[in-house]
Amino acid sequence: MNITEDELRQITLQAIDELGEKASPETVKKVVTEIIQKSGETVVDNTAKQTESGKVILTSFGLNHPGIVAGITQTLAGTNCDIMDISQKILSDFYTMIMVVDISNANVTLQELQQKMNAVADKLKIKIYIQHEDVFKHMHRV
Hints:
The chain is an alpha+beta fold. Helices cover 44% and strands 27% of the residues.
């Protein structure tokens, strides 16, 4: 029997709940992989190219200078990601920006998007972090 994407999502959410504050992309992947291996089932990939679905939280911060927003948004546009919400704050010489980004139509995987954002961060001398919304919600619940 095969595991569908919906069943895989449920297993992932269960793993996040069980891990609690220890949940990180690596630990969640390890737990989910162990569960699937124990069941003897396989995951059905219904897409031609593996892409992530849903939304991610993109957080960036650093010393303020021209071109930061342009660099990040150009990369998102180039990967067919949609910015759903954005908040930016500049405090003296420092800036922070948080985005909710829909990656369901992205032409890259979440891992590839992270690699592209790492390159942008290095070029702009800032920090950029991306977390899938499911992990973010479960890790930051009260």
